[in-house]
Each structure stands twice: as structure tokens, then as C-alpha cells.
Amino acid sequence: MSKQDAGIGLKVLTAGGAVGAAWAAxxxxxxxxxxxxxxxxxxxxxxxxxxxxxxxxxxxxxxAVIGLxxxxxxxxAAVWYSKATGTTPANLNDVSx
Length: 97
Known about the structure:
The protein has 97 residues and is mostly helical. The chain has a domain at 1-7 and 51-87. 71% of the residues lie in helices and 0% in strands. The chain contains two helices and no strands. The longest helix has 35 residues, at 3-37. It is elongated.
């Protein structure tokens, strides 16, 4: 496997893993919200009809859990890449602002 092929594979694996992790995290957060509050989460927290406390709570909870799930998926893709190629992904140390 060439480095270019491995790099493309890493991008596909990372993107797919992040999407899958975000989907699963959203399901988890939605279920947890329903169990905790007894209500459906707000469909659109920006709606003025949604109370501030509920909108902020949903934004914080869902953002944190989904962000952590995407991070975990991306990190695991880097681990798999490293094991498969014996090298760290080239763009791993790129810092975007």
C-alpha cells in the first residue's frame, strides 16, 4: 500500500467514523435527554418558543457528547493508520486555526 493510498484510506476512515460516531452520539444524547427530562429535546433551540435553559442545556450537552464522539473516532482512525503503516499520519500535527 502506497502512502498516498494509505492517506486516502485514512481520510475515508476518519470521515466515516466521525459521521457514524456523531450519529450514535446524537441518538444517545436524545435518549438520555428524554429519560432525564421526560420531554423530547428541542427540535430547534434557536426557536424563541424554546426556554433559554432548555436551549442552552441541549446545546451544551449535545455539542459536548457529539464532539467527544467525533474526537474518539478520529483518534481511533489515526491509531489504525499507525498500526497499518508503521507511521503516524502526516497531517496529524497540522494545527488549523
